[in-house]
Specification:
Length: 553
């Protein structure tokens, strides 16, 4: 057990196994889990956040700019992803999910390569990849397809480059490591913090092997330069397109106020502890058991602890970022859960080797443990159906089996949570499309930008949802900007939403319909120039009945 790797005993001692290497069976099962999870992910439709990203991404393809022309307060990376998805695969809900599956598989391949590098055994990485894929699938449509989902793919690419055997091209590798972490930072800034761990690792390895501080500083500096480049290029792009001011107000003034909401009456130490506890133990019992096994069981590989320290360093920075946000939404953990799953894969592989010593009975015991651990805890538990029931419905959709032989039929059953219902958005979008022409603009006073995307109607304002106007901070600036835009491009239809209450997001406990009278300018506009023509579920649809006034009242 002291060599660079440990090979499992040959399967000749296991009754009923034909392959010489029992890892063959374990790896085959892992691939099966990953493929089935990827198929599930490919069927996910939009939640509320994905609708926002899709509208902005579609706008980018049509020459509009994030923040200036289509507003959200996420960093720009996720908008680029949705623009790329729609450019490659068309304006469909599955387009970005195909990129999401590609990101998942890319992460698995990087983990396999890292496993081969450190353990001379790709199966360890496969187990971790399978655990991560299962957690990802359990996050379902609402908590997947988020910035963290794509940021972790860049993180795995950066880690693979970092952990490769050093060679003559190490300066270029260091620059690539920085670029990958910089791309992750465009998705969510804390994800770029892994560059600190990578720079320290590369510098220490260069110093220990080559004995030169100059070389170590060079590599660390190149990582830093690479990490800064994506953000710098993004800022230059916004500056060149005349959108820097709006980007600065959004990310530099509005977003800090949004973050500050979560810190009222809370201590940093408590929030960090909460983030650690949730990340390691909330989302998956199988992952938690694997992490405990990885740490508690004695090392089987000489470089095992080296890899653990690198992964834990990156995880620590990400968890600090989650605690700083203070929202603790499930998707905030998406990137971190993939790294924790890699550690869990090592622990589960150790258990696998231990169980192999018991012959066929040990193999049965291992898989029995897995089968029992998986349903002990699911990643999210606020959806209307049981996870396996949702899986069955989605496979019926993939097979085009009635009654779920269309996306709308599947979404009617699956794509709703809390106050959000994709089927309602579709009904409202149809009502809007019927009452408007392709050149008309519409405005949604609410939190459902999917209506724009589904109706294929252009928003009358950059504010494709109204959190900025309903917030307890910066609302005056946002309301003034909204009214200026509505007077310039009077919408043919205004949709007012009810039951969209988000105290942790807006800082208030009222919905859009109730809050409309507290916005006198917009309320007066609706009352004077629009009439209620229909109600669809929890949406009031107003159509313009009078010509717009020549100037604001």
């Amino acid at each position: 057990m002291t060599g660079s790797s440990v090979r499992p005993p040959e399967a000749t001692v296991l009754t009923g196994f034909r392959a010489r290497d029992p890892n063959y069976w374990l790896e085959a099962i892992c691939w099966l889990v990953i493929v089935l999870c990827a198929l599930q992910i490919s069927t996910f439709s939009f939640g509320r956040d994905q609708s926002i990203y899709a509208v902005v991404g579609d706008g980018i393809l049509n020459g509009r700019m994030p923040y200036r022309d289509l507003w959200d307060f996420k960093p720009p990376g996720i908008f680029f992803v949705h623009a790329l998805a729609q450019a490659l695969f068309g304006k469909h809900m599955f387009s970005v999910r195909l990129l999401e599956v590609a990101a998942l598989l890319g992460g698995v391949m990087c983990l396999r390569a890292i496993s081969q590098q450190f353990f001379e055994n790709r199966t360890v990485g496969m187990v971790g990849g399978a655990v991560g894929a299962l957690i990802h699938a359990q996050m379902d449509f609402w908590h997947s397809g988020q910035p963290e989902t794509f940021g972790v793919a860049f993180t795995w690419l950066a880690l693979w480059l970092t952990l490769r055997e050093p060679g003559k091209r190490m300066p270029w590798v260091a620059l690539g490591v920085g670029l990958a972490f910089g791309a992750a930072a465009l998705m969510k800034p804390p994800l770029g913090g892994g560059a600190i761990v990578a720079a320290a690792y590369l510098a220490q390895r260069a110093r220990s092997r080559e004995g030169g501080m100059k070389r170590a500083l060079l590599l660390a500096g190149l990582v830093a330069v690479g990490a800064a480049l994506p953000t710098l290029l993004s800022v230059l792009w916004f500056w060149a397109r005349g959108a820097f001011g709006e980007m600065y107000w959004t990310l530099g003034e509005f977003t800090p106020g949004y973050t500050a909401l979560s810190w009222e009456g809370r201590r940093a130490a408590d929030m960090l502890y909460h983030a650690i506890e949730e990340a390691f133990f909330k989302f998956s019992a199988l992952s938690a058991a694997g992490v405990v096994a990885a740490v508690a069981m004695r090392p089987l590989f000489t470089r095992e602890r080296e890899l653990l320290f690198v992964l834990l360093g990156v995880i620590a920075i990400q968890l600090a970022g989650i605690a700083m946000q203070g929202k603790f939404f499930a998707y905030h953990y998406a990137a971190t859960l993939s790294l924790i799953a890699a550690i869990a894969g090592l622990g589960l592989y150790k258990l696998w080797l231990r169980c192999l010593q018991g012959g066929a009975g040990g193999v049965v015991a291992f898989f029995s443990f897995v089968v029992v651990a998986v349903p002990m805890r699911y990643a999210v538990r606020d959806l209307p159906q049981f996870f396996w029931e949702r899986c069955a419905i989605r496979f019926q959709f993939l097979l085009q089996a009635p009654p779920y032989d269309s996306r709308e039929a599947m979404d009617q059953e699956l794509s709703y949570v809390a106050d959000y219902n994709l089927a309602s958005d579709r009904r409202v979008a149809r009502a809007v499309a019927q009452r408007t022409g392709s050149n008309d603009t519409v405005y949604v006073w609410g939190f459902e930008p999917a209506i724009y995307w589904l109706s294929e109607r252009r928003p009358a304002s950059r504010y494709i949802y109204n959190v900025a106007q309903r917030s307890s901070w910066e609302s005056e600036h946002a309301r003034r900007g909204l009214m200026t835009e509505l007077w310039k491009r009077p919408p043919k239809v205004i949709v007012v939403q009810a039951r969209d209450v988000f105290p942790s997001v807006t800082g208030t406990s009222t919905d859009s319909r109730d809050e409309l009278p507290s916005f006198p300018e917009l309320y007066a506009l609706v009352q004077a120039e629009y009439e209620l023509v229909t109600r669809v579920d929890f949406f009031d649809v107003y159509q313009r009945s009078a010509e717009p006034q020549s100037s604001p009242p």
